[in-house]
Amino acid sequence: MDADDTALRYAAGVPPSSPNAPSDAAVGAEADRLRKRRAPRGRGIDPAVRTELRGWLAEVCGEAPPRRDRLIEYLHLVNDKLGRLPAPYLAALAEWLRLSQAEVFEVASFYHHFEVVRDDDPRRKDAGAAPTLTVRVCDSLPCELAGARDLLARLPALLGPGARVVRAPCVGRCDCAPVAVVHQHPVVHATPEAVHDAVRSGKRLDRVEGHVDLAAYLAAGGYALARDCAEGRRDVDDLIAELDRAGLRGLGGAGFPAARKWRIVRAQPAPRLMAVNADEGEPGTFKDRWCLERDPHRFLEGMLVAAWAAGVDAVWIYLRDEYHGLRAMLAAEIDALQRAAPLPLPAIELRRGAGAYVCGEESAMLESIEGRRGMPRLRPPYVAERGLFGRPTLVHNVETLFWVREILERGGDGFASHGRHGRRGLRRFCVSGRVREPGVKLAPAGITLRELVDEYCGGMADGHALYAYLPGGASGGILPARLADLPLDFDTLQPQGCFIGSAAVIVLSQHDRAADAARNTMRFFADESCGQCTPCRAGTAKAVALLDAPVWDRALLADLSAVMREASICGLGQAAPNVADGVLAHFGHEVGAAGDEGGTGAAAGAAGPAAAAPRGSS
Q1: Could you tell me which of 136, 131, 42 has the C-alpha nearest to residue 95?
Q2: How far apart are the C-alpha atoms of 230 and 618, rounded to whole Å?
Q3: Is the pLDDT of residue 601 over 50?
Q4: To 10 degrees, the CA torsion angle through 507, 513, 516, 518?
Q5: pLDDT at residue number 43
Q6: Is the pLDDT of residue 594 over 80?
Q7: Given 93, 109, 248, 615, which is the most exposed site by the fewest CB atoms within 10 A?
Q8: Contact between 197 and 189 (Cβ < 8 Å)
Q9: Cα(302)–Cα(269) distance, rounded to whole angstroms?
Q10: 30-34, 471-475, 538-542, 614-618: which has the minimum mean pLDDT?
């Protein structure tokens, strides 16, 4: 009996010589219990996992200290290495960052692209139980129209147990629907056979080629504007006034005037920061990818000019995780720019999203950049006053910045001279669905849907006639063919219960049902709700159930819509009812809720005014 055991016996009030003394086995068990209590409560750290993880981190971070705001980047590192996030690695990462394990777990479990494997999951004990490959099939509305359901039904048997086939929200390639992503390799116009061939041939990665690189951009006069700004040859006030004349607005959905935003942020106390929202998750939207894959430095120069005008010290670019090839290309071009340094540059960080639509909302994006769950913040304060890391922050969308160089070199009046039906400027419309030539279409602001389809898309696809269209993606509402002559621009569609948002136009034909479009979009919002507020979390789930009924309860849906609009924290919950409300207003005959003259259209705005654009970022 050792000294510790003797002490335990005396502490229990029973000397070792007493006939009532506990047995050696009982004393040993008590000693083990107390020894365990000397260690911290909770999960212990596996030394082998700690060593392996820190080796990976050293490859990426070198000698740099851990950064709390880069938690999501570290989670990507582990997920990329293992294809999942086993609990022991999350515990070791929490130790390295000096965070609670609960904090790391809650962030990891928030994002769709992280697969957390818990202790009771058989895949933790048996590596062979986990599929070695994930195939994501987009089931957003454009892909569903093009046959995504058939892909989801047939691929599991075709690919076998070595592949995990999952449905995924919009992957930003709606003009090439349907789309499946084999690990990081997109298969466009996907068929079961094409996906099987990609898997069998080992295609796993995406590459972006053919873009305007730094050398070509400089040779064509690139960065001359940004250099003039940095070297004092351009006046800030004159430059902002030129944007005012152009009427440039935020093109990510909110439509806030760009010049006014620059003035507001510039007037805030330094240091000021900037965040670029390249997380275009709105179903039907792919114009940011289109711009960046072709001319990344035009965007970067616009970003630098905006940063200079607002007096910004550092810039973060938040790019959606679905754009793997683009991310690698953009990182390489930013690195080339920083090495060449044709002008003084602010600090620039490229951040990787993790599959959360709500992070397109500007304050949720800032939370994600800070390494937290992407949950929208309450306002006020607004991000221009207190944004990223508590500092005044200029937030912009990619397309807005893409226009800056052209407007400032050619003059704001030239940009404003374009437009139709009393509107001013140019827009890039993302057109998908039942048209002959889908894609990004540069067209005058205020063009009508009928003009856009006939003049820019080659008309409707063979065998299809216009029946309905969504003017602003999943959140922008839905309109019937009889309203295809309305100007498409900010502020023109609100009387019809719609808005243009990110200009993601999805076209339906007589072979489609508006009610099915509403069901698809509401399932999307229910999946993507962050869960922070009850009206959105419970409201979208309740709406999914109500929309699945063959006959819709008009009164109950109207009440639910009103509550979601009035009480949701952010635009996701506020705009989620728009398409369903549009069906009731214009297509009631489909759902046994007639009162709209047999589907030829109820009084305009029967569903009430449209909610604000949900992305919350310009």
Answers
A1: 42
A2: 24
A3: no
A4: 60
A5: 79
A6: no
A7: 109
A8: no
A9: 23
A10: 614-618
For residue 506, give the H/E element and its range. Answer: strand 504-509
Alpha helices in 422-475 (DSSP H): 449-456
Q: What CA dihedral angle connects 396, 399, 405 and 408, to 10 degrees?
A: -80
- Is the link from the previous residue into 535 a cis peptide, with omega within 30 of 0? no
Q: Give the torsion sign (CA, 301, 302, 308, 314).
A: negative
Minimum mean pLDDT among 128-137, 208-217, 295-304, 609-618: which range? 609-618
Contact 234, 228 (CB under 8 A): yes
Task: Examine the pLDDT at 123 and tell me if it is beyond 90.
Answer: no
612 in Cβ contact with 574 (< 8 Å): yes
CB 403 within 8 A of CB 302: yes
Structure tokens at 301: 């120069």
Other beta carbons less than 10 A from residue 499's beta carbon: 28
Q: Which residues of 347-375 are buried (b: 16+ CB within 10 A; e: fewer)?
A: ebebbbbbbbbbbbbbbbbbbbbbbbbbb
* DSSP percent split of the chain into helix, strand, coil, nearest 5: 45, 15, 40
- 418 in helix, strand or coil? coil
Pairing of the two strands 180-182 and 163-168: unpaired
- 122-126, 149-153, 341-345, 506-510, range with the lowest pLDDT: 122-126
pLDDT bracket for residue 24 (50, 70, 90)? low
Is residue 433 over pLDDT 50? yes
Dihedral angle, C-alpha 404, 408, 413, 415, nearest 10 °: -30
User: What's the pTM value of the predicted model, to 2 decimals?
Assistant: 0.91
